[in-house]
Amino acid sequence: MTGASLGLRSLSYGSLQQQLQNGSLLPTQSPPVTVRKPAKMSLSGSREKERILVRVCKFAGRRKVGMLLLLIASVAVLSSNSVLWKDENGSASPDSGMGFTDQVLSFVNPGRLTLDNVRQPFILETDTEFDTTRRSVHESGNLDFSKEFTDPIQNFVNSDRLSINNDKDPDLPAKEPKPDNNTSSMQKSVTTNNVTGLSAPMLPSTPHPCESFSFPPPLADKKRTGPRPCPVCYVPVEHAVLLMPPSPSPSPLLKSLSYISEVNLIANESNGGSVFGGHPSFQERIESFNIKESMTVHCGFAKGMKPGQGTGFDIDETDLLEMEECHDVVVASAIFGNYDIMQQPKNVSDYAKRHACFYMFVDEETETYIKNSSGSVNTKRVGLWRVVVVRNLPYVDARRNGKVPKLLLHRLFPNARFSLWIDGKLELAVDPYQVLERFLWRKNYTFAISRHYKRFDVFEEAEANKAAGKYDNASIDFQIEFYKKEGLTHYSPSKLPITSDVPEGCVIIKEHIPITNLFTCLWFNEVDRFTSRDQISFSTVRDKLMSRVNWTINMFMDCERRNFVVQAYHRDLLEQRKVLTASIFPPPSEATNEPPRKTVPDTRAPPSRKLPPKIPARRGRDKRSGSRRHHPRSAMGKESN
Questions:
Q1: Residue 375: CA atoms inside 13 Å, Cβ hemisphere, count?
Q2: In terms of Cα–Cα distance, which of 330, 318, 432 is closest to 380?
């Protein structure tokens, strides 16, 4: 090939030069072909490029220069990929709603969340205003919780906000979604039983990760036949936080609830109850079960204007102010009369430690024990618990005093949305947000309590309390006879879907709304009027409310309760076991460094130890004679002979 041929442009089926040589192309059909001359410096330029390439390779062998070139190449590749990714995302329609679907699917995915594939669609929070004069709850329109979130899990909420539609409350501003011809048919306001309606695209139903969970068969263990925990399916903590309802659940019929209180309350023991409970009459008791849209009932703390201030069950002002700052979830327990040993919660997430409140109520006797056992003067904080000392207790019975925080947490924490009560003998072993999601939010319940593992009938529960000496037998009989006159019957399958009349009341999971607050108020009034055994009065209050409004309680299995709380013994039982163990297995004697002394061998026989007499084994003749001796016919034959 000559230098002139380098400038010829080849065609698909041969070169132009070949066509000219063959005479297939006439001069008149096309202009003359001009041959481009090569540049003079083409050969020398190629040599210069080869020299530059050699120099580059020589310097690239050095470490620093090689790393610099590798960095420049990687930056170029990443920049090109980012440009392509933006072009692909820009081609998708922003109103297609597919991003929202991906977010919802990622929420229920039990796998680990990452910042790359998850964006939180919504976390809305209700700023609830509480009127301290009437203790009634009013919802406001500020449904924005984003300012509270600092973790990466909460920073997912930026732009995907959903509006609240509340037709019943005109004070709530309803934000209408922007109209879109392409997606208007997919928009619909969804309203469930206990969740405020949200304007969101209608999405295909996605199964909950625990929907297919089933209980495994029980283990065959003949040595352990009593109650035991069973497996429970929890979602991860970050998922549980995302599934928390954005606004309070609707309260059926009852919208406003206030409480009776008098500064100068006069005791009237003829009505029963106590001064702390307000001595409600029987007529007031009957009227308290007639649910209306606005109600005022007795609910403890009757003597005074604010719970904890001169009402009995008095609390320091600094503690009350701090309790009012609890706006989310409160976990509470109590120990009175130094009856239990304080148990520290475990497996609690960092999020719960920052946002949930952990309160332990104690009396002065228990506070003294905590100081002596820990050696610390300041007992305001013991582990995860915020310890609150209660003075001027309303009852002599320590167990009855424990019913005040157990049933009236909504009065002690007026701004809390959810509460988890555990008895002082229990140890919380699961994060509170996981417990709330499992037993409240998953099935839209507002109140949950476990049923008794063995007894389902109130009459059986009363007899068991009498046999165990839990309370005065005459008082238990009076309460049962009173309930029988009001229509109390034995539990039967005809009460289904109610699964039991007897709860295991050591754990209460509750959302603070008017109907649940009314239920615990009336339940406390029964405990104040009759016996302190709250298992006896539970079904009566529940059935009266359920017969008037469309409301139900989640009575889950006791083995599920034993999954998230570990039950310990009361202090008196633990001390008895220690004494018994020390008597059976005495502690070993302390070892000394003194050399062993030389002693004269004792020729006396060792003293005989008195052991229980051993019954000698009978031989064959003794067995036969014994069997004949105890046989009635053989005995008659001997006497006849």
A1: 0
A2: 318
Residue ranges of the chain with pLDDT lower than 50?
1-43, 85-203, 614-615, 617-641
For residue 235, the model assigns a pLDDT of: 96
* pLDDT tens column, 132-146: 333 333 333 333 333
Using a 10 angstrom Cβ sphere, with 0-12 exposed, 13-18 middle and 19 or more buried, the burial of residue 369 is: middle
Give the contacts of 190 (CB within 8 A, at least 6 positions apart). Answer: 197, 198, 200, 202
Nearest to 361 by CA among 393, 391, 335, 338: 335
Q: What is the pLDDT of residue 402?
A: 96
Where does residue 313 fall: left (phi above 0), alpha (psi -120 to 50 degrees), or beta otherwise? left
Give the amino acid at 332: A
Distance between CA atoms of residues 332 and 410, nearest Å: 11
Per-residue pLDDT tens digits for 434-463:
999 999 999 999 999 999 999 999 999 999
Q: Tokens in use for 570?
A: 């009361």
Q: For the beta carbon of residue 296, count every other beta carbon within 10 angstroms.
A: 17
Encoding tokens for residue 236? 């991860």
Q: How far from each other are the two terminal CA atoms of the chain, in whole angstroms? A: 146
Rounded Cα gap, residues 467 and 594, in angstroms: 57
User: What is the reported pLDDT for 216?
Assistant: 74
Count the helix, strand and coil residues of the chain and give each as a percent rounded to the nearest 5.
Answer: 40, 15, 50
SS3 sequence, 277-306? CCCCCHHHHHHHCCCCCEEEECCCCCECCC
Q: 447's torsion region: left (phi>0), alpha (psi -120 to 50) or beta?
A: beta
Which residues share a beta bridge with 334? Answer: 361
The pLDDT value recorded for residue 201 is 42
Q: Are strands 357-362 and 385-389 parallel, antiparallel or unpaired?
A: parallel
Tokens of 31: 């202009």
CA distances to 482, 484, 496, 525, 563 from 487, in Å: 9, 5, 17, 19, 35
